[in-house]
Write a structure and sequence with these properties.
Elements lengths: L2 H54 L13 H55 L37 H6 L28 E3 L9 E3 H4 L12 H12 L1
Antiparallel strand pairs: 1-2
């Protein structure tokens, strides 16, 4: 059985185990409340009896000699034992959940290491990371007419398959292990993923943008400028 299969098997049984412990916790809590209520009534009655005894002179007003009955003290001790059982059950439930979380962390760590090894192997074999239109995304300082790194700008560029694009349509940061040498793009300063659009300003410092980060759902018609370049262009017009 693989680690993932074992984790799934343990996770499937977790709700049943937790339900049993929570049911027992609820029963203990009800029992504790009943004991507490009974003990409060007994203590109130004994206090009244002591007061009447003091007033009648049958009981000396010496507070050191006044105490609750053995029955009342036993109820209090019993309530403490029940409360301790509740705490122990709660700790067991917490430990169960914590154990599964630790197992999940171990799986994610192994998964992360596998991805890292695959990227290292790909780097050793010389397989380039694909960029827009399948070109290698390298070089951010080349100001040639085709764009930095020789990346020709086109509206039809799609960085990954449609399935990958729909998996993160909002342009949120992807917390996935990436090649540290892979260039980043967009305002979010992340690697390429999903559908991307190029700014039509040849001097744009960023050049490529994720749809979600710039509020696009489809390729724009005509020329498109990022907010930075659009603002610069408007300022120049105003002069």
């Amino acid at each position: 059985m693989s680690f993932l299969e074992e984790f799934h098997a343990n996770l499937d049984s977790l709700p049943v185990i937790l339900r049993k412990k929570y049911t027992l916790l609820r029963d203990l809590d009800k029992s504790l409340q009943d004991i507490k209520r009974q003990n409060e009534q007994r203590c109130e009655q004994e206090i009244e009896d002591i007061k009447r005894g003091v007033r009648s002179g049958n009981i000396t007003p010496d507070t050191s000699a006044i105490r609750f009955s053995d029955e009342a003290l036993d109820e209090q001790k019993h309530s403490i034992r029940v409360a301790d059982e509740k705490v122990a059950l709660a700790v067991q439930a917490y430990d169960l959940v914590d154990t599964n979380i630790q197992q999940l962390d171990q799986y994610l760590k192994k998964f992360d290491e596998e991805i890292r090894r695959e990227r290292e192997n790909a780097a050793i074999t010389g397989v380039p990371a694909s960029g827009p239109e399948g070109n290698t995304k390298s070089g951010r300082g080349n100001e040639s007419g085709t764009g930095r790194g020789g990346r020709k700008k086109t509206r039809q560029t799609t960085m990954v398959t449609e399935a990958q694009a729909t998996s993160n349509p909002t342009g949120m940061d992807l917390e996935l292990p990436v090649d540290p040498n892979e260039p980043t793009y967009c305002f979010c300063n992340q690697v390429s993923y999903g559908a991307m659009v190029a700014c039509d300003n040849p001097n744009c410092k960023i050049e490529w943008f994720h749809f979600g980060c710039v509020g696009l759902k489809e390729q724009p018609k005509g020329k498109w400028y990022c907010s930075n370049c659009a603002a610069t262009k408007n300022r120049r017009r105003g002069k």
